[in-house]
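Notes to self after the Tuesday call (sharing in case useful).
The group wants a holo model before anyone commits to mutagenesis around the pocket. I volunteered. Ligand is adenosine-5'-diphosphate. Logging inputs and output together so the record is complete.
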Amino acid sequence: MIEYRNVSVIYPNCIQALRNINLQIEKGEFVFVVGPTGSGKSTLLRLVNREERPTSGEVCVAGKDLSKMRGGAVPRLRRAIGVVFQDYRLLPQKTAAENIAFALFVTGAPRKEIMSRVIESLDLVGLADRADAYPHELSGGEQQRVSVARAIINNPQILIADEPTGTLDPDTSWEITRTLERINIRGTTVIVASHDQHIVDRMHTRVIAIENGVIKRDVKEGTYHELAKS
Ligand code: ADP
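Result:
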């Protein structure tokens, strides 16, 4: 589903964010990317929807080499990839339902279909009763649920989440993670950059640890830190 081949990213300020990354993520996986701030997690995620491009090497998504993709095809790629940010990025003047619907209006979908899909995705994140609330009327956890609902409205093949629980308390973080898990079980490949040791350990899923732009560890049923060898 996603393949990195000898991928390096050097930013214009000469910082090398990723160094010769080779990595495969299969369809339907739930993957955590962990590592200290500045280790390259966001850059790794941003390559998937071509927000960032490799300085060398290739990134392939669903069999397509993104470096060969023409600019006109990028919007279609991005519709197939939901994105969740740490800071929610909701439009403050729009209700929860309107924030979610916004991503569908641009696709030209009929209004009736939009409304039924908005309700379906709010339902999936457990917020069907807050459709008409504005972001400032919602807690941080609820706002993040709205942003997850927005990310899945187009039924994406891939969901990338960059520190989605970075500002939330432990219980709320766990609820959001379980919501991402439900989306994964429905078939979406989910990649989460996280600092949250507790969540990563509790999920016990694939963990890719990067440090200084290099993959240090890639474990199928992993934990945040390497377990001491006995
Ligand atoms: P993480 O998500 O693990 O915190 P990032 O991928 O954001 O790491 O950053 C990796 C390195 O690249 C850091 O040293 C960061 O300062 C640098 N960096 C990230 N984005 C940019 C950018 N747009 N321009 C220049 N340097 C950047």
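Two things stood out.
The first helix runs from residue 41 to 46.
The CA atoms of residues 101 and 116 lie 10 Å apart.
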